Amino acid sequence: AVGSAQPSPTHGRPPAAPARSASAGSTPTHGAPDALAGLGGDVHEAFGQGTRRNLRNDLLVAADSITNTMSSLVKELHSGEG
């Protein structure tokens, strides 16, 4: 029973992936979420988290840049008062 249970999940995964990949490949203009929809849960989750991580990093970099720019502006304004 254990030996027959192992090949079943392994056999069920590969046929599902190519069928979904083909449909995802025919609609590449729908964006990343649709492109990831045809992949396995682990792959989708890995790339989904990576995208969130990149977005978070980009937002932190942008916020830091804005903070530095505002700080420079305030320093210039204060130096002009004296």
From TrEMBL:
Superkingdom per UniProt: Eukaryota
Segments of this protein annotated with the region Disordered: 1-46
Biased composition (Low complexity): 18-37
Designated name of the protein: Dystrobrevin beta
